[in-house]
Amino acid sequence: LDAGLKYAREALKADGANAAHREALAELLFRKGDRQEALKLMEKLSAEFPRSALFARQLSRYRTAPFDRL
Questions:
Q1: What is d(CA 17, CA 15) in angstroms, rounded to the nearest whole number?
Q2: Residue 57: helix, strand or coil by DSSP?
């Protein structure tokens, strides 16, 4: 997960507007146990793309789901 976070952050530096990069970072943050940061990113994405079923599902999951045990 640490390497994934590093690469996701590098990708955002190269293209910070890319929604896929931001969603990937949010997922990695959530899996690392950083619910608040994951929620912040996903709330922004959901507001930016209100018709995205994926972002709506992820937002709901980040709010309520327990963290995965890795």
A1: 6
A2: helix
Phi and psi at 67, nearest 5°, equal: -75, 145
Please, what is the end-to-end C-alpha distance for the chain in angstroms? 10
Query: Rounded to two decimals, what is the model's pTM?
Result: 0.89
Q: With CA atoms as reference, report the closest residue to 62 among 37, 53, 4, 51.
A: 37
Say if residues 26 and 62 touch (Cβ distance below 8 Å): yes
Per-residue pLDDT of the chain (70 residues; tens, 9 = 90+): 899 999 999 999 999 999 999 999 999 999 999 999 999 999 999 999 999 999 999 999 999 998 765 4
Q: Under 8 Å CB-to-CB from 27, ≥6 apart: which residues?
A: 38, 58
Return the structure tokens found at 14. Answer: 């190269």
